[in-house]
Amino acid sequence: MTPEFRKVGPSVWASSKRFRSLSVDAKLAYMYLLTNTHSTSIGLYQLRPIYMADDMDIDMGDALACLDEIAEVGLIDRDREENLIRIDRWFTINPITNPHHMIGTLRSVSRLPSSHLQLSVFFEIVISGLSARDRWTKPERIAEAFDLAHHTLRTIWRARGDEELACALGRLEGDAADAIGPSLSLQLPPPNRDMR
Predict the structure, then answer these.
(1) Could you give all domains of the chain from N- to C-terminal order, each with its CATH number?
(2) Mind listing the pLDDT tens digit for each residue in 136-176?
(3) DSSP calls for 52-119
């Protein structure tokens, strides 16, 4: 079930150079990507461009041009083969609020088709959860959330392979060292070649 509303940060209009650089049509398309009925609570979802064209009452060529323009400035990432859209910085506006929320978002990620975008969202969820963990009050739910994070990472690791995960981990180390802190390390099992 799609939630009745989505958070859109008002700063997008004033301080986002990327958003302001878009054409008027691409700005409308970006708002559509944030709020359409296909969108999910994890900022990663399947959307066939034909649905976007139909919902926005524009032709397919214009829908694809808008998607390309929005991706070019880095507001979204796309997996064209799986028709996946990932909204950049989704968890900045929609942070993980508790272990139950983290568990639900990780389950949602694991249900999507295998894609390089899963890794990006997985790490955003973990970073958002780690940033909020000091406010969480139920230690058993925290342990459950991070056990599920480990299980999800193993699943993605097995499906995607060494190179992409190594790249994602490098990005995680560089971009999120402050959020994770020196005491946590993600121990990766060797990929199970039989499960690929």
Answers:
(1) 11-91 (1.10.10.10), 96-195 (no CATH)
(2) 666 666 667 766 776 666 666 666 655 655 555 555 444 44
(3) HHHHHT--HHHHHHHHHHHHHTTSEEEETTTTEEEETTHHHHS---SHHHHHHHHHHHHHSPS-HHHH
- 3-class DSSP state for residue 86? strand
Structure tokens at 97: 């609020």
Digit-coded pLDDT (tens) for 95-149? 888 888 888 888 888 888 888 888 888 888 887 877 777 776 666 666 677 667 7
- What six digits make up the tokens of 77? 């990432």
CA atoms in the 13 A half-sphere facing the CB of 36: 23
User: Judging by beta carbons within 10 Å of its beta carbon (0-12, 13-18, 19+), is residue 42 exposed, middle or buried?
Assistant: buried
8 A C-beta contact, residue 136 and residue 142: yes
| pTM assigned to the model | 0.73
- Parallel, antiparallel or unpaired: strands 84-87 and 44-46: antiparallel
